[in-house]
Design a protein that fits this description.
heterodimer, A: mainly beta, Immunoglobulin-like, 8-stranded mixed beta sheet, 4-stranded antiparallel beta sheet, elongated, B: Formate dehydrogenase/DMSO reductase fold, globular
Chain lengths: 278, 452
């Protein structure tokens, strides 16, 4: 994260602003830029300020896009392709931030980042599963060299967040290893996505890569043919039994009474007179 | 006086109500028919223009019609429970009023379900309910239960009418030959032979027993249509017994009203006495106590849980700007007032019991409205950018017209039934009079023996 302070000395009262920029290279190779704008004197977030983002290459400035800061002073620009930022010679790139508000004097600040190459590989030796993270970067001549003493954090995406499974510290070959847990639930085939991230690095920013591997415990979700719900295709057996017992019971008695009515007619006397005696 | 003479005397007194269709009867019939016609016009508009003409919308999909449906099925309990239980307990005082109760049952069970038909958007698909029934649907349970209940109630009413049909077909009445033939056909040739007596008694007892659980099932099933739905104020385990109790309670109130109505209209003061009003009043406050207890328990539980949507509903019911007034009326007139009037001996007159019953019946109707509408206005998903009429239900004149048409149809059917069959059971009431006379004679005899 790089900080820049801008003081305004123009005619009307302008506010001095301080900006920081976080560079995030996502696992899909897209880039997300996150700038935080604060009041330089009071360090309060500056909300609703439009920021311009630029890529600087060979003194040529190319606009990447604009974003407005929220209540926390954060302005986010996302959906950028990594290729639009990269300077091919030495794998470094410069991003500039500009405050597009007349109350803040037209100011800008440049932030320099370097690209990093991170790769994930999976080894299984004697039933021990290991994730190998290899990180390398480019020297001034454009050669790929291992990156020593770098931290990388490993995660598995779960439903709502990333589950941390450990971190690695790279050796002189730019490699770090982590033993993989054996009981992590995967999909039907045990498939999992592993994400490795370099986080908040001064030179590389946030960089993430991901790979899939079938190292999880396969999880099968049994779906019942008759879920416990009344909108299931068939009524449960107990409901049928209850219904049939009740209906047969009631309608049997109705039938019995109707038969009795027939018998009352059958037992009628020929006399026109009613027997009023008990 | 022997039994035959008692019967003939009673028939002589009741005969004019069956023999003549007076100008008053015509006035009643025409007035009520006009109200029904008004309702028919409203129904025509509803069918022609669709349910848009009602106050029902996407969120509040039920309104007056469903409240009326619960109300009419509720009052049908008067016959099922009251006449069934009183019959089984063999209480003599029940005899003059039992037919009123049975008629309420049959007529209310015919009128009530009509409101469900009014509620349906696609009446042309009504037969799907019978072609593709789903046993797991409370709606299917309701249809089956109500049909079974209606058949049972008609059989029960018919059984208690057979002896009167027999009397009407054999006695000299100014009713015309055709009508007499109908009575003879319906009497099944009943001459009170020993076999017929036994068969009729057994059949009546069977129906008196069986109609009680059926009635309980019907109203429980009706309550489950609400109870099985995950909505605030509906999803309650006590809804079954709560509905059953409320139904018998309102049924008792309607029975008192019907008793008062026919007593005044046909001059039946000798048969329907203050005792009947007071006894039914006692039954009413007993049921009212149970109903009050259930009401308190229901709202206390909802309020105490402080669950979001229940709290929202309770707030609406206690807010004077929303349903506070109706809720207050439903509880004061529906629970407290009957206790005060019937509980204090000085206030216990025929008129006051009738008045308090009328208020109670109205309060019970309001209560049904409060069960249906405020809950539907309390949606689980927040409603945004929706027109106010989609959130708050207001019944339109068409719905009111059909409501009054239903009430008019109920009264008209009752009135017309009373012109065809004696509203006081002749045979059973004569039995009761004879028993009373015999008891007095026996007392006189015993006294003379003691004195001698």
């Amino acid at each position: 994260m790089v900080f820049a302070t801008v003081m305004s000395f123009t005619g009307h009262a302008q506010v001095a602003a301080e900006a920081s920029l976080t560079y995030n290279k996502l696992k899909d190779n897209n880039v997300l830029l996150r700038a935080v704008l604060t009041d330089a004197q009071e360090s309060e977030p500056l909300a609703n300020i439009e920021l311009g983002f630029y890529s600087i290459q060979d003194t040529i400035s190319t606009s990447l896009g604009k974003a407005i800061s929220n209540e926390e002073g954060v302005a986010v620009l996302q959906g950028l392709s990594f290729e639009s930022l990269l300077q091919k010679q030495d794998h470094t790139f410069i991003i500039a931030v500009e405050v597009l508000d007349e109350n803040y004097q037209l100011t800008s600040r440049e932030f320099t980042f370097s690209d990093v190459n991170m790769q994930l590989s999976f080894d299984e030796i004697d039933s021990v599963k290991q994730i190998v993270v290899t990180i390398s970067t480019w020297d001034e001549l454009g050669n790929l060299v291992p990156l020593e003493e770098a931290d990388a954090y490993l995660y598995v995406p779960r439903m709502f967040s990333l589950l941390p499974i450990g971190d690695v510290y790279t050796d002189e070959e730019g490699q770090g290893m982590l033993e993989f847990p054996t009981d992590l639930p995967g999909d039907l085939n045990g498939g999992l996505e592993i994400i490795a991230q370099i986080e908040d690095h001064d030179e590389f920013g946030n960089v993430a890569v991901s790979e899939s591997v079938n190292w999880g415990a396969p999880v099968t979700y049994e779906t019942s043919k008759l879920p416990r719900a009344l909108w299931s295709p068939d009524a449960p057996l107990w409901m049928w039994i209850t219904f049939i017992v009740l209906m047969v019971g009631v309608w049997f008695h109705y039938g019995w009474v109707l038969i009795n009515l027939r018998r009352i007619k059958y037992h009628s006397s020929d006399s026109e007179l009613i027997n009023y005696e008990d | 006086m022997n039994f035959k003479e008692t019967t003939q005397n009673l028939l002589k007194e009741l005969a004019p109500t069956i023999e003549k269709f007076t100008w008053k009867d015509w006035l009643w019939t025409i007035s009520l028919s006009l109200v029904i016609l008004w309702g028919m016009y409203a129904l025509y508009l509803q069918i022609a223009r669709g349910h848009e003409v009602t106050g029902m919308r996407d969120n509040v999909v039920w309104g007056l019609y469903v409240a009326n449906f619960i109300f009419f099925i509720g009052i049908s309990y008067a016959g099922a429970i009251i006449s069934g239980i009183l019959h089984l307990m063999n209480l003599e005082w029940r005899k003059p009023i039992i037919r009123i109760a049975e008629l309420i049952t049959v007529i209310a069970t015919i009128i009530g379900p009509l409101y469900i038909l009014l509620c349906m958007g696609r009446l042309d698909r009504l037969h799907y309910l019978f072609i593709y029934p789903r046993l797991q649907s409370p709606i299917t349970w309701d249809v089956i239960a109500i049909l079974t209940y209606l058949v049972g109630s008609v059989i029960f009413l018919y059984l208690t009418l057979i002896r009167d049909f027999s009397i009407l077909s054999t006695q000299q009445l100014n009713i015309g030959l055709k009508r007499k033939r109908i009575y003879r056909f319906l009497s099944l040739g009943f001459k009170n032979t020993s076999e017929q007596k036994v068969l009729l008694k057994v059949s009546t007892n069977i129906m008196a027993i069986i109609i009680i659980p059926i009635a309980i099932v019907v109203h429980s099933v009706l309550s489950w249509i609400f109870g099985m739905t995950l909505r605030p104020g509906w999803h309650s385990t006590i809804f079954g017994p709560y509905f059953v109790l409320a139904a018998v309670y309102s049924g008792t109130g309607v029975m008192i009203l019907a008793m008062y109505f026919f007593r005044r209209l046909y001059g039946l003061q000798r048969y329907i006495t203050k005792k009947h009003f007071v006894y039914l009043g006692y039954i009413m406050i007993m049921l009212g106590a149970g109903y009050g207890y259930f009401t308190f328990s229901e709202y206390l539980t909802d309020w105490y849980s402080s669950e979001k949507w229940n709290t929202e509903l309770i707030d609406k019911l206690f807010n004077w700007q929303e349903y506070g007034g109706l809720f207050f009326f439903a509880n004061v007139a529906g629970i407290l007032l009957p206790f005060i009037v019937i509980g204090i001996p000085k206030l216990r007159t025929i008129e006051s019991i009738t008045l308090v019953s009328a208020l109670m019946v109205l309060a019970m109707w309001v209560k049904r409205y409060l069960i249906v509408v405020p809950t539907l206005e309390t949606t689980l998903i927040p409603m945004q950018e929706t027109r106010p009429e989609y959130i708050h239900y207001t019944a339109t004149w068409l719905e009111w017209a059909l409501t009054f048409a239903g009430i008019a149809a109920f009264i008209l059917m009752f009135k017309l039934a009373s012109k065809f069959i004696p509203i006081i059971p002749i045979w059973e009431t004569s039995e009761s009079i004879k028993k009373k006379t015999s008891a007095i004679d026996t007392n006189v005899d015993l006294k003379s023996v003691t004195h001698a």
